[in-house]
C-alpha cells in the first residue's frame, strides 16, 4: 500500500505541467478535500480568498461554521478539483470543525507570525486532526501574515523546527494581504496529492491490486480519489 512515507522517496517526476481552470469548469478526473484550520484571526478566510480568487478584503467578518470554495486545475492530462474548506477557529465550534477532518486529503494548519498563542495552539490543532482524520492525511504548517515583519514574534526557524519535529509535509510562510505564497500553498498541495495518486496508480499496476481488499485501500488512501464526472 502506498503511504505518504514511501511516496516521498518515489521516482515519480515532479516537472508537472500545470494549467489554471475556471471555477465552473464542467468536469474533473480527481477530487481532493483540503481544509484550513487554526485559531480565529490568523487569516484563514483571507488566505483562501486570496489563493483561489486573487482577492484580499481588508475587513473580513469571522467565519461562522465553514466556507466552501473550489479551485480547478489541470496537471499533465488530469483535471483536479480542490474542495477548499475554510473552517472557523472559535473554541465554541471545535466539535463542528472535527466533522470536516474526516476524508480530508490535506490540511493546512495556520498561525499568525505575530501571535505566539496561535503558534502554540498549532500542536493542539494537529493533535485534533490526527485523532479524527485519515491516518495518511497530508499536513502543511502555514505561518500567515508575513507582511507584518515588524511585528514578528515567531521566527521561520521555529516554524521549520515544528514541521521537522512533527514530521509534517511542508512549512511555508504566506501573506493574504500581499498574496505572497498564497496560491503557491495550494499548488504545492495539489502537486503533492497528485504525486500520491500517481504512486498509488503505479503500485496498483505493479501488482498491488491482486488482493481486492488491498486494492480497495488504494482507492481511498492517501488522496481520496473520486471517479471522473462530466457535465450532462
Q: What's the helix and strand layout?
A:
Layout: H1 4-7, E1 18-21, E2 30-38, H2 44-53, E3 66-75, E4 78-87, H3 94-97, E5 106-112, H4 116-120, H5 122-132, E6 138-144, H6 156-165, E7 170-173, H7 182-208, H8 212-220
Description:
The protein has 232 residues and is of the alpha/beta class. The chain has one domain (4-220): P-loop containing nucleotide triphosphate hydrolases (Rossmann fold), CATH 3.40.50. 34% of the residues lie in helices and 22% in strands. It is built from eight helices and seven strands. The protein has helices at residues 4-7, 44-53, 94-97, 116-120, 122-132, 156-165, 182-208, 212-220, and strands at 18-21, 30-38, 66-75, 78-87, 106-112, 138-144, 170-173. A seven-stranded mixed beta sheet has the order 1-3-4-2-5-6-7, with helices on both faces. Helix 2 crosses helix 7 and helix 7 (182-208) packs antiparallel against helix 8. The longest helix has 27 residues, at 182-208. It is globular and about 50 Å long. The two termini are 35 Å apart. Residues 1-10 and 210-232 have low confidence and may be disordered.
Amino acid at each position: 500500500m502506498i503511504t505518504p512515507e514511501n511516496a516521498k522517496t518515489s521516482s515519480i517526476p515532479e516537472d508537472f505541467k500545470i494549467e489554471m481552470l475556471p471555477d465552473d469548469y464542467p468536469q474533473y478526473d480527481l477530487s481532493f478535500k483540503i481544509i484550513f484550520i487554526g485559531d480565529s484571526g490568523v487569516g484563514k478566510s483571507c488566505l483562501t480568498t486570496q489563493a483561489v480568487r486573487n482577492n484580499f478584503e481588508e475587513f473580513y467578518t469571522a467565519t461562522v461554521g465553514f466556507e466552501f470554495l473550489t479551485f480547478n486545475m489541470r496537471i499533465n492530462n488530469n483535471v483536479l478539483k480542490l474542495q477548499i474548506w475554510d473552517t472557523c477557529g472559535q473554541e465554541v465550534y471545535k466539535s463542528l470543525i472535527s466533522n470536516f477532518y474526516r476524508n480530508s486529503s490535506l490540511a493546512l494548519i495556520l498561525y499568525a507570525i505575530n501571535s505566539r498563542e496561535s503558534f502554540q495552539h498549532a500542536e493542539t490543532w494537529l493533535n485534533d486532526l490526527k485523532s479524527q482524520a485519515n491516518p495518511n492525511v497530508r499536513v502543511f504548517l502555514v505561518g500567515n501574515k508575513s507582511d507584518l515583519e515588524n511585528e514578528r514574534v515567531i521566527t521561520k526557524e521555529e516554524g521549520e523546527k515544528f514541521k521537522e519535529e512533527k514530521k509534517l509535509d511542508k512549512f511555508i510562510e504566506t501573506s493574504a494581504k500581499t498574496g505572497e505564497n498564497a496560491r503557491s500553498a495550494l499548488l504545492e498541495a495539489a502537486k503533492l496529492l497528485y504525486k500520491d495518486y500517481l504512486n498509488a496508480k503505479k503500485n496498483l499496476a505493479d501488482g498491488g491490486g491482486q488482493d481486492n481488499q488491498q486494492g480497495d485501500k488504494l482507492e481511498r488512501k492517501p488522496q481520496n480519489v473520486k471517479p471522473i464526472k462530466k457535465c450532462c
